[in-house]
Amino acid sequence: MTLPLAGYTVVALEQAVAGPIATRHLADLGARVVKIERPGEGDFARHYDDAVQGLATHFVWLNRGKESLAVDLKSERGIRVVRELIARSDVFLHNTAPGAVDRLGLDADTLRAADPRLVVVNISGYGTSGPRTDRKAYDMLVQAEAGMVSVTGTPDAAAKTGVPNADIAAGLYSAMSVLSALLRRERTGEGAVVDVSMFDAAVEWMGHPLYMQLYGGRQIPRMGLSHAAIAPYDAYPTADGQILIGVQNDRGWRTLVTDVFDDPDLADDPRFVTNVERVRNRAACDAAVGGHTVRRKTAELDERLAAAGIPAAQVNGTAELVEHPQLRERDRWRTVATEAGDIHGLLPPMTYRDVELPMGPVPALGEHNDRILDELGLSAARP
Asked: Where is the signal peptide (predicted)?
């Protein structure tokens, strides 16, 4: 069956996470993605670490299925190559530093004057205007500016998320913008210019805390694994570890204490009979729940909670995640080729029933130079 984006070409002037995750999803969907890199160095994410058989974890995660074109954008010839390539493409996406594409003559206005059907996606830290437009924007910095760290962590210490949420959010909105712009182009013939900022994407994800501040007049406290508005909702001790339980309504509370804990008196305890009261008496509620969970082993308790329909989860580390039966039994692992040999990779989250999305090789730096230059009629031997 035909891949969703088969026949479309994306040129990406990208690095790190936000741009690469957007275009990796497009590549997974079948688009041809040509990644522009600096000769000799490439995307600096290639050098974050060497944990994957000598390759960097971020790079192999974010760049499979792409072609690497290493060209010097400070040279006239390099700019010519990229312009020729964009002229034959459907999408140009970049997450370069503020003003970089303008200085190269690769700004949206210039490119779309030559090709009105082109879709241009500009990923920035803080957007195209405002007092922080020219600031450097890394994930941690944007998480701080967007308030994410104020609601993440424990009461004693703020924390950023363990994965780059601001980068990933911006990348996903960028990929979505490409899909919607191409769909509109099929109907109207017109391309588009889309601006996506990491800051705007991160602020969008702050919906609940933001509206609590706007209309409740208060900052959501940092709660660790707990929840500011729901109880019980936390990790609780077991005989051999811990388990996370989240009860979101009063019926669930009654089921938990009656069917799982065999302690029906707790169901009618006035301190716990409603969620409002349970939140008000959170310490006592958590103590009551923990007093029961600690009596059973994690696996046994997990099964009892599932049988009763109580939301619960084991608190896994990455070692447990690698061996997770949900991934193994659903056959989610595949082999991905790299210059250092085959590695494991997970199928894309979007699963089509009629076609398996490809998981192409992770490119070596400049691996596709000869092929692309030949296509453009600009062979490597030409000055």
From this structure: none
CA 224 – CA 63 distance, rounded (Å): 33
Rg from Cα positions in the chain: 25
Instruction: From residue 259, give the alpha-carbon distance in Å to each of 253, 255, 266, 304, 334.
Output: 10, 5, 12, 9, 41
pLDDT at 98 over 70: yes
Question: Could you write out the DSSP letters of every residue in 139-198?
Answer: HHHHHHHTTGGGGSEETTEE---SS-HHHHHHHHHHHHHHHHHHHHHHHHS--EEEEEEH
- Please, which pLDDT band fits residue 380 given cuts at 50, 70 and 90? low
**Residue 157 corresponds to which amino acid?**
A
Domain ranges of the chain: 9-205+328-376, 233-314
Q: Can you read off the two tokens belonging to residue 131? A: 């007092």
Q: What is the pLDDT of residue 117?
A: 98
Dihedral sign, CA of 136, 139, 144, 147?
A: positive
Model confidence at 383, pLDDT cuts 50, 70, 90, reads very low
Show which residues are catalytic: 227
Cβ proximity of 293 and 257 under 8 Å: no
Q: Are 8 and 118 in contact (CB under 8 A)?
A: no
pTM: 0.92
| E strand map for the chain | 9-13, 32-37, 66-70, 91-94, 119-124, 153-154, 157-158, 192-197, 233-238, 241-246, 312-314, 333-336, 343-346
In CATH terms, 9-205+328-376 corresponds, of 3.30.465.10, 3.40.50.10540, 2.40.50.140, 3.40.50.1100, to 3.40.50.10540
From 163, 199, 167, select the one nearest 22 (Cα to Cα).
167
Pair 143, 202: CB distance under 8 Å? yes
